[in-house]
Design goal:
- There is one protein chain.
- By secondary structure, the protein is of the alpha+beta class.
- It has a single domain, classed as Glutaredoxin (3-Layer(aba) Sandwich).
- Helices cover about 55% and strands about 15% of the residues.
- Strands 2-1-5 form a 3-stranded mixed beta sheet. A two-stranded antiparallel sheet has the order 3-4.
- It is globular.
């Protein structure tokens, strides 16, 4: 009986340690940027399923945008125009729902795989396909909450040191390293595998 208790405790400890050892991967991107689209669609998403138990993914759809507060309201100007701002805001409102990492990844990939990622109907379809609450997303989009979330994305982007110069930018474990970013953009799997401590997925 005692040995069974010890075995259970051991299993729980191992599970906790594995969870804590996940590599954090932050993707700073612009929805309408061809380089961002290419990275998510062709270098990140095809390998996500084999890496997902080893990484914690954060999405920051802001890039080289600007935000200023005018008469108590946030004004957002995006590098690739108003439709990019619209799509970015829909995305942060969806992420605010707190769905699983898998759902968030599939939703973001779906949006960036649209023929035109700024098309509202297409974004709604991506939300529906991945079980997001479109009514809640629209409420967030229209009531000012989406602008607040975008401003937070901007603040996070501006805190990068050195400052963001290219899109997409990949940051591991909350510490920006330009060399690692360049390596990740070239070979995301190999670079991410190098960051995983201990047992690695088969693709490594």
């Amino acid at each position: 009986m005692k040995s069974a208790k010890y075995l259970l405790a051991f299993i729980i400890i191992i599970k906790i340690d594995t969870s804590l050892s996940r590599v954090k991967v932050a993707v700073y991107y612009e929805t309408m940027c061809p380089h961002s689209i290419n990275f998510v669609r062709n270098k990140f998403h095809p390998y996500y399923k084999v890496l997902k138990d080893y990484i914690q993914v954060e999405w920051i759809p802001y890039g080289r945008s600007n935000h200023t507060r005018v008469n108590g309201k946030w004004q957002i100007q995006c590098k690739n125009g108003k439709d990019e701002c619209k799509s970015n805001k829909f995305q942060v409102c969806a992420l605010e729902e707190g769905r699983s990492q898998d759902k968030n990844v599939d939703f973001i990939t779906c949006v960036l795989s649209l023929g035109y990622p700024g098309h509202t109907r297409g974004i709604e379809d991506c939300a529906d396909r991945n079980s997001f609450d479109w009514a809640a997303i629209m409420e967030c989009f229209e009531n000012g909450r989406g602008d607040e979330l975008m401003a937070k994305m901007g603040q996070k982007t501006r805190r990068l040191a050195p400052r963001l110069k290219q899109v997409p930018t990949i940051v591991y474990n909350d510490t920006f390293d330009g060399r690692l970013c360049d390596l990740a953009l070239n070979d995301f799997v190999k670079t991410t595998c190098s960051m995983i401590i201990g047992q690695k997925p088969s693709i490594c």
